[in-house]
Design goal:
The two termini are about 40 Å apart. The protein has a seven-stranded mixed β-sheet with strand order 2-1-3-4-5-6-7, sandwiched between helices. It has about 475 residues and is of the alpha/beta class. The chain folds into two domains: about 190 residues, 3-Layer(aba) Sandwich (Rossmann fold), CATH 3.40.50.280; about 240 residues, TIM Barrel. The structure holds cobalamin and iron/sulfur cluster. The site of cobalamin (B12) has 36 residues, from α1, β3, β4, α5 and α6. Iron/sulfur cluster binds next to α6.
Length: about 475
């Protein structure tokens, strides 16, 4: 059956969307005909001088602002682009359209235009914005989205397509929401996450032109040759401020080193590409499997380089770091968050500042570059705790390759902070609960957090003597071609 899958802003411009590559691979392996469109990269290329900056990492916030979209981005850019995209999709004559949506308005805008042009073609939405953690508030079935897929879409989409093909109508399979005949939203229940990730096919990037991808720098896209890959899903930790672990629900799962190596080598040969970004929460949730990957790549003598997010761990010894470096691991981003033992404990990070210090030194001494993320203003964080973190970073600056990314503590939907504010002694402002919360004693306010964030960022800016740019944090030493 002919299916069109599209992704829309806002996603990174560094590489094609792995969600579409994974979903299309599963569908094609079952004989379906799929065409993928990455409208995120298309929009960035066609945005023109004044709008390209919207794809810079630090400008991500504009996309979440519905007013900004409706007043600026929609009339100036997307009315035009969406007309073009609707024509491109129509030419494919799809029987079903899937859109991967995020918290920008573009996916909804596209779906509305498609419903106008192709009223009989069902539209299925999936992606992070459809997660059940938002309790249908973020993405809901409507007159343009016929079905919403929550959570992992790999097998849900296959079931939707195959039941549609067999029965000639959309069937709300497990893991989806739909509107019943009374207009009520119904959810069919959670689909169990894929446990054996090795059973997933290698992502299929054949529909994407890899020459289009790169870093947005000064209104231009500087080509970077990199592909995303996912070795794991979920996380082994349970940090109170984290929504991502609920988005990638279920127990931590990781592919075997053999399967990861097979896929990476296949992709490397297919695209003459050897730099991979692991797009997952943590790549070292199963240290044994990570080392297994390193061993296979090393023994195969493959020139592959990769980087990703990892969790601070006492298992990352200098010896293992050296093996990982030899296998191609070039960079790690650690979510350090704080260097105060008391805050780390309250956050439930599962390590202390001593372990963090050793881990950072080991990884650095093994020849792997490091960046870190910091959170300021956790509910009970005192000024002393804040200074502990600041001093830790200053002391460890020579081990870090880029300016640390500093974020104020958010109580985003899905986090324990959001779900149980009482337990953490905080009160959420109903108008902006994620960002604007206050401790019951009135001491930790949004204003205070923003001031602390500014101070810390300024100190880092001077210490690292770098131009302040969020992009550096996420694409350390990219391979430019
Ligand atoms: C790795 C990552 C990044 C990477 C690259 C991601 C990318 N592709 O652009 C980097 C670091 C660059 C990044 C950047 C940003 N990110 Co980010 N990122 C992630 C992370 C950790 C994993 C994303 C990923 O690739 N997953 C792997 C793929 C396979 O999973 P997936 O896309 O969810 O797809 C699965 C399902 O959702 C579903 N599915 C997806 N699409 C579809 C479509 C259909 C039709 C169907 C049926 C199913 C389906 O099936 C897929 C396979 O199971 C997520 C958090 C998370 N836990 O998911 C945040 C996340 C996606 N990022 C987010 C945000 C906000 C951003 C930024 C905008 C941040 C900012 N600057 O403000 C920027 C993007 C701007 C920019 N210019 O870079 C938000 C999105 C919020 C939302 N509700 O949509 C998330 C969810 C984090 C969060 N907790 O809020 N990010
Ligand atoms: S280690 Fe990172 S991904 Fe895992 S729960 Fe903590 S913050 Fe979330």
């Amino acid at each position: 059956m002919k299916v069109v899958l599209c992704s829309v802003p806002i996603l990174t411009t560094q590489f094609p969307p792995i969600s579409l590559a994974i979903l299309s691979s599963e569908l094609r392996s079952r004989g379906h005909s799929v065409k993928c469109f990455d409208f995120n990269i298309d929009a960035c290329h066609k945005a023109g001088k004044h709008f390209t900056k919207y794809w810079e990492y630090q400008n991500g916030g504009y996309w979440h602002d519905a007013n900004h979209y409706n007043n600026v981005l929609r009339p100036e850019l997307f009315n035009r682009l969406i007309s073009e995209w609707v024509e491109l999709i129509s030419k494919e004559e799809p029987l079903l359209i899937g859109i991967s949506i995020n918290n920008s308005q573009v996916g909804t805008h596209l779906a509305q235009a498609l419903k106008h042009r192709l009223p009989h073609v069902p539209i299925v939405a999936g992606g992070p914005q459809c997660s059940i953690i938002y309790k249908h508030a973020a993405a809901r079935p409507s007159s343009w989205f016929d079905l919403i897929v929550s959570g992992e879409g790999d097998y849900t989409l296959v079931d939707i397509v195959e039941s549609f093909e067999a029965q000639g109508k959309l069937v709300p399979v497990i893991g989806t929401s739909y509107k019943d005949k009374h207009g009520q939203i119904k959810y069919t229940g959670n689909r169990p996450p894929v446990i054996h990730l090795d059973s997933l096919h290698c992502p299929d990037f054949s529909d994407f032109d890899l020459n289009l991808y790169g870093d947005v720098v000064n209104d231009k896209i500087i080509h970077v040759k990199m592909l995303p890959y996912q070795t794991s899903r979920g996380c082994v930790a349970t940090c109170h401020f984290c929504a991502d672990r609920h988005l990638q629900e279920g127990v931590f799962r990781q592919k075997t080193g053999k399967k990861i190596a097979e896929d990476l080598i296949y992709l490397k040969n297919q695209f003459n590409n050897y730099d991979f970004c692991f797009v997952e929460l943590i790549s070292n949730g199963n240290h044994r499997k990570l080392m297994e990957l390193a061993k296979v790549l090393y023994e195969e003598k493959e020139t592959i380089s990769f980087w990703g997010h990892m969790r601070i761990s006492s298992k990352l010894t200098l010896e293992d770091g050296i093996v990982l470096r030899k296998s191609g691991l070039r960079h790690v981003t650690f979510g350090l968050e704080s260097a105060s033992d008391s805050v780390l404990k309250k956050m439930r990070k599962g390590y202390n500042s001593k372990i963090a210090s050793n881990c950072i030194k080991n990884v650095h001494n093994a020849g792997i570059t490091i960046s870190i993320n910091i959170i300021v203003g956790y509910p009970d964080e005192t000024i002393f705790n804040f200074l502990e973190t600041l001093w830790f970073v200053i002391r460890h600056r020579r081990y870090l390759t880029s300016i640390p990314s500093v974020c104020d503590c958010n109580a985003s939907p899905g986090t324990d902070l959001f779900n149980e504010p009482d337990k953490f002694g905080i009160i959420l402002n109903p108008n902006n609960p994620s960002v604007d919360w206050i401790t019951k004693d009135g001491k930790n306010t949004l204003k205070r957090r923003l001031v602390l964030k500014k101070i810390m960022s300024l100190v880092f800016y001077h210490i690292f003597n770098l131009k302040f740019s969020g992009a550096r944090v996420f694409n350390p030493n990219p391979l430019r071609v």
